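Give me structure tokens for this 158-residue protein.
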Amino acid sequence: MDFGLPTPRALVTTLTDLLDRDVTLTPAPPFIPGPFRPATLGVYVDDSLQVVAVGVLDIALSAYTSASLVMLPRKAAWEAVSSHTLTTPLRDQLHVVLTTLGELLTIPGERIHLYAVHAAGDRPPEFVLHKTWVLERRLDVRITVPGYGSGLLALVRA
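Here you go.
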């Protein structure tokens, strides 16, 4: 099955509406998570529970979007980034961020939904991590969240 990735404009509009901040977006090289590049992985499936996409947020974007969503002080987000550990309040908001991003993914006649979230610092299943290694069928961008900072986002078709 084929489905489209969102346009950069749709991504900016969606995140701006969600975070109530004028986020900015710039192109970025492919972001591949690893032991020294912690990331949150959102696993998207279709109606038959087949993995169709993975959303990847580096630890910075994981912390900044989550903190911005519930208006936590930027210090809390910065501490999470420097310690490479997301606190429970930050982890809890990742579901909202990734569910919203999933609404931008489409398969004609199918519904895409968020199946699982593996927060930065957790160990995701290997098969999910391997799906992030695809170097085509992906959108990689740097998102800047005003008042917090910037981080990397990748949406990868499985």
